[in-house]
């Protein structure tokens, strides 16, 4: 069997684009994967196509060799931009191997370690604590047992029509009273931490003690601000606090992690074992959130999970992506022993998109997604989804 072609097509998901990747072979077996990096879709698609001269004519089942060649022979190694294209091809190659052997990818990798994968959804904080409470209740009514929001008052606090928000449709992107381009070294209203607590307290009361609530800070705070926030939220039993400080600083993240009992999560902007190693060595995180579409695919992520396991760190993969990426993540979650929880958008709109992209999407069952049972990643791509025209992408951090 030989690789004959690689295709990378930019298509619209909802408010952003994704890249659907297909690796074709001379035996008619095609591996399918997804690459997503918001605001960089066309760049990523071109980067994937630049791997084509190396891969065409090669045996697609020699995955470890191909990963190493794609990574090392580029000379400019590391970083999400480099690794996203490798991730897409790597995942497509695993899909081919599963289809050729007739086995799900998780079985090829020694799984499953679980039959159902716990997930959380996105939930907008809204303009008031009361609206946030309503949104949490709506997420719970949809069958979710955990949800994540961005920092209230930073994102999503002043939508044009607060009552029209759809829980899980977008927990970020609408500007709150803190300017979207506010920098963590600039003056911040000191009352904001207590006011954020009011939002999270309302959410906890609405969800009940058993409902998981996580907060994504998007790296907006400096260490002292993050510590102040943690002290305000310490008694609310959060699932985790994500990216409290910008993602570049190991020591800065350690400052926060050591000052709170709230689990600290980070890693969506780190790539490969080399990117995560210093954070694990310094014990900077309790949960690692690397994304299978950005950090080296299945091959890269299984190595990251092994590093994390040695530090007693759970994997909570970043996945605000499309339905193909979610299906890939289910296999990853199934085969590693230190899996914690998987991110999903989890809205009605997200379910609709899954139905448009896949002929056999999985559906939420009591806060979990079941494992697909077919060969490869266990889904069949709906070709009509490839006709969705891409949208223009812009935004802030």
Domain module count: 2
Q: Give the helices and strands as they follow along the chain.
A: EEEHHHHHEHEHEHEHEHEHEHEHE
Cα Rg = 20 Å
Residue ranges: pLDDT <50 for 5 or more in a row? 159-169
Name the shape in a single word.
globular
Tell me the CATH architecture of the largest domain: Alpha-Beta Barrel
**What percentage of residues falls in helices of 4 or more residues?**
25-40%
- How large is the share of residues in beta strands? 5-15%
Most strands sheet: 9 strands, mixed
CATH homologous superfamily annotation of the largest domain? Enolase-like C-terminal domain
CATH level 1 class label of the largest domain: Alpha Beta
Category from helices, strands and their pairing: alpha/beta
Distance between the termini: 44 Å
Per-chain topology:
Blueprint lengths: L2 E10 L4 E9 L4 E6 L5 H9 L2 H4 L7 H10 L7 H22 L3 H4 L7 E7 L6 H13 L4 E5 L41 H16 L4 E5 L6 H11 L6 E3 L7 H8 L6 E3 L5 H10 L5 E2 L8 H14 L3 E2 L7 H13 L6 E2 L4 H10 L10 E3 L27
Parallel strand pairs: 4-5, 4-11, 5-6, 6-7, 7-8, 8-9, 9-10
Antiparallel strand pairs: 1-2, 2-3, 4-12
